[in-house]
Amino acid sequence: MTENNPLVQYLNAGETTISNILLHHYHELGMSTAQLVVYLEFKSYLDRGIIDPDIRQIARHLQTDENQVFDLLHQMMSNKLVVQQMRKLADGKEDAFWDFTPLINKIGAFNEQEAVEKVETKISNQRKMTFNKIEAEVGRPLSPMEMQIVNDWIDRDHYSGSIIDLALRQAVMNNALSLQYMDRILRNWSRQGLKSVHDIQEHERRFEERKSQNNYSHQEPREIQGPKIPIFNLNTQQKNK
């Protein structure tokens, strides 16, 4: 294929990738749309190893002037998205270039914060569901003291919502529906190192198996009944022959 072929020109032009976090949240990161486009122009050169692209060329691509590009870069400096660094050239002279490391760090921090917020939202939803289930069983809103007990289970003791649900079911089945009874159940499981619903269910299964075996071993042995077999006197049979 010749260099004038559109496909060859497209491939030779290369591609610029962008983080979806930046694409979807650049406003939350403190960037305007114009600043995002300027960054993408710089990135198209940075991806090819050109750390100090010609601002005049970038301005032509954006169909604006150099001053507008510099204004946008200075705005990004104020928002701590880019800094200007110095480097030494081969001839010993120094040259300035635009370093977007602060923006990259901000993207990483935003991703971590987003993950933390998701976890916090999940915990908040689980907490609300736990309160709703307990209140539905007791048939009334929990008192402030009772709410503190449940919050301590979640925040201090780190009991999962599923384990608290299991303790609630145990209390209902035993006709002992109170938070004090549930607290004893939860502490008992914790002392035995049972940290998941699976652990508790396995523990209960093994307990029931041992209980069944003990009951069977304490039963009185019964006489095995079978068909009556006649017992012959072999000596008598030999005399009659």
Number of strands: 2
Overall CATH architecture of the largest domain: Orthogonal Bundle
**Sequence of strands across the biggest β-sheet:** 1-2
Query: What is the name of the CATH superfamily of the largest domain?
Result: DnaD domain-like
Features:
single chain; 241 residues; mainly alpha; Arc Repressor Mutant, subunit A; two-stranded antiparallel sheet; 2 strands; 63% helix; elongated; disordered C terminus; DnaD domain protein
Q: How does this structure look, described?
A:
Residues 131-204 form the DnaB/C C-terminal domain. Residues 18-115 form the DnaD N-terminal domain. Residues 200-212 have a biased composition (Basic and acidic residues). The structure is a single chain. The chain is mostly helical and 241 residues long. The chain folds into 2 domains: 10-99, Winged helix-like DNA-binding domain superfamily/Winged helix DNA-binding domain (Arc Repressor Mutant, subunit A); 121-211, DnaD domain-like (Arc Repressor Mutant, subunit A). Helices cover 63% and strands 5% of the residues. It contains 11 helices and 2 strands; from the N terminus they run αααααββαααααα. The chain has a two-stranded antiparallel ribbon with strand order 1-2. A hairpin with a 5-residue loop joins strand 1 (83-88) and strand 2 (94-99). Helix 4 (55-61) crosses helix 5. The N and C termini lie far apart (118 Å). The relative contact order is 0.05.
